[in-house]
Design brief:
The protein has four helices and 15 strands. The chain is α+β, with helices and mostly antiparallel strands and about 260 residues long. Strands 3-2-4-1-12-9-13 form a seven-stranded antiparallel beta sheet, with helices on one face. It has a six-stranded antiparallel beta sheet with strand order 5-6-7-8-14-15, covered by helices on one side.
């Protein structure tokens, strides 16, 4: 399976520390070697870096690791291909425009027999189930709300309904953002941590790297980091139950939706 990494903050923050451990899982500490990508939201813009090569050995990943791009919402992905060839166009995150916002999406999983009718303006460039699912979600949002952004509450309810339907096709761990929030779905495996004052020292699992967050933050900072597996070994991460959809905003969970019907 692929690996997901997301960050949602109340102030623009760099992801260098988390990305250092995360990129090692693409060919060094794990076997996810079929490409990687990352998106940083900055205002209404998006910086996107994609590489079909293994992240642990990628010069592009080395640049991202050492360049402190500050953002309130970040989505990163390390790919282990299940559907679609190892090519740049099949590398996550995928980005599209809707309602004057860029949207970014990354998926960990495998959707079986998923062939949606795409009759709107969102079409996949590659041949992954992930990009098809993303295009379908945006198509259905536009079909539901037309050409006007509906507001976060109505949007969240619709995305919850779409997630319920898509999760029925298989494993559907994903991260989605349009710069205002970060939506994270745990289909099988997902963990998160919220760092806030008083900040402490953290040590990565995948690299011998540590940072004292009290030296690089203020008392008002709040940072949520979401990953397929915990990235640090000396912090307490929340392991989310399968069938949980979480809406992160300003560095904390603002709403949780169940995606497994009650028995």
């Amino acid at each position: 399976m692929c690996q997901l990494l997301g960050m949602n903050c109340n102030v623009p923050t760099d992801i260098c520390f988390s990305f250092t451990g995360f990129r090692a899982r693409g060919g060094l500490t794990d076997h996810h070697t079929d490409g990687w990508g990352i998106c940083f939201f900055e205002g209404k813009g998006v910086r996107q870096f994609l590489d079909p090569n293994a992240s642990a050995h990628s010069p592009v990943a080395e640049f991202v690791k050492s360049y402190p791009i500050k953002s309130k919402n970040v989505i990163a992905h390390i790919r282990k291909a299940t559907q679609g060839d190892v090519r740049l166009e099949n590398t996550h995150p995928f980005v599209r425009e809707l309602w004057g916002h860029y949207w970014a999406f990354a998926h960990n999983g495998d959707l079986k027999n998923f062939s949606p009718v795409l009759d709107g303006r969102f079409r996949p460039v590659g041949d992954t189930d992930s990009e098809h699912a993303f295009c379908f979600m945006l198509q259905e949002l536009e079909r539901e709300f037309g050409d006007r952004y509906p507001g976060l509450e109505a949007l969240g309810e619709k995305l919850h309904a779409l997630t319920l339907g898509l999760a029925g096709y298989g494993t559907f761990n994903y991260l989605l953002s349009h710069g205002e929030f970060l939506l994270a779905h745990c289909s099988t495996k997902l963990a998160s941590i919220i760092r806030r004052a008083p900040f402490t020292v953290a040590h990565l699992k995948d690299q011998d790297v540590m940072v004292d967050f009290s030296e690089v933050t203020t008392g008002h900072d709040r940072v949520a980091v979401i990953a397929t597996n915990p990235l640090t070994e000396n912090e307490t991460w929340t392991i989310h139950a399968p069938g949980t959809l979480l809406l992160f905003r300003d560095g904390e969970v603002s709403k949780t939706f169940p995606t497994i019907p009650a028995s």
